[in-house]
């Protein structure tokens, strides 16, 4: 039996330090369940005594501490750029198709596009993933009790748009109606892939960091289960969300010809001072095209999910006058734009290597 990682599930387990080590968790937060994700009897004695400032080696397993983020990884694990467990077949297929998809993706993403084709292929991608990632799942909590349903500190997701396993996590986040920070990690990444390698020990996506609990984790299935356990208030992922990824999760990747997979060669090397903000939901065909561009430019952004039933819909109406997405807000230039075609033009003009953000 191979070495395993710590989390709340049988094959990937995570251990986080107590809430006393996280000042933000000492504040009342009605959405946060009990800190202990596992009965203490299921944790090894070494885990219970693990110090957040130490590194513990046990046989062929290595405990890794990154500030207050903990995970266990195998000493002989090798870096990879996609999921390593149940998704091996789809991962191999995606790896094989990458150069072909890039060949047929239409070349320079900043160039002239056939917008009819863009909309058709993105709409077919949405159709392939119905009903996942389109609406917020209802819960039993009176939403008027909250000024926000988000955790005190935003979750951080390292991913790339074309990855079917990353898509699974983004669909779950739409269902949970969470906002989070997205750090795109396209192939050829100059910033974010190195961060993932430093925090988790390998390039594998998606990679979630939850600063509210100190948990960092790979594996999309485990991330989805963790998110629903931690922030779902008793809700469960919609039927088929986890199982369907291996069947249709790769369809948007194929239909979109690998858009959102590779760093644009003319992208700026330095990140903007402030994160952009995108109002979106996972299965919206127009928002997908914008997220692809953000990934190809490796631009970190705050993702504000506004699926059907989202409590943020009111905020979106207040800001833009309608519930239409995508809506992009760039605090670096004071720009706010809502049409996906205009957003594409703005992004590639503003964040090319030849442009200077003022």
Keywords:
single chain, 358 residues, Glutaredoxin, three-stranded antiparallel beta sheet
Going across the major beta sheet, what is the strand order? Answer: 9-8-6-7-11-10-12-13
Low-confidence segments, given as residue ranges, are: 1-80, 85-91, 140-148
Largest sheet: 8 strands, mixed
Rounded to the nearest angstrom, the distance between the terminal CA atoms is 55 Å
Inertia-based shape: globular
Domain GST N-terminal: 153-235, 274-355
InterPro entries: Glutathione_S-Trfase (IPR040079), Glutathione_S-Trfase_N (IPR004045), Thioredoxin-like_sf (IPR036249)
Protein name: GST N-terminal domain-containing protein
Organism: Ficus carica (Common fig)
How is the secondary structure organized here?
Blueprint: E1 5-6, E2 12-13, H1 45-48, E3 57-58, E4 61-66, E5 69-74, H2 88-103, H3 115-128, E6 155-159, H4 164-176, E7 180-184, H5 192-200, E8 207-210, E9 215-217, H6 220-231, H7 245-248, H8 251-255, E10 276-280, H9 285-296, E11 301-305, H10 313-320, E12 327-330, E13 335-337, H11 340-350
Parallel strand pairs: 1-2, 6-7, 10-11
Antiparallel strand pairs: 3-4, 4-5, 6-8, 7-11, 8-9, 10-12, 12-13
Helix pairs in contact: 3-9, 4-6, 9-11
Structure, described:
The chain folds into two domains: 5-74, no CATH class; 88-350, Glutaredoxin (3-Layer(aba) Sandwich), CATH 3.40.30.10. Strands 9-8-6-7-11-10-12-13 form an eight-stranded mixed beta sheet, sandwiched between helices. A three-stranded antiparallel beta sheet has the order 3-4-5, with no helix packed on it. The protein has helices spanning 45-48, 88-103, 115-128, 164-176, 192-200, 220-231, 245-248, 251-255, 285-296, 313-320, 340-350, and strands at residues 5-6, 12-13, 57-58, 61-66, 69-74, 155-159, 180-184, 207-210, 215-217, 276-280, 301-305, 327-330, 335-337. The longest helix has 16 residues, at 88-103. The protein is built from eleven helices and 13 strands. With 358 residues, the protein is α+β, with helices and mostly antiparallel strands. The radius of gyration is 20 Å and the shape is globular.
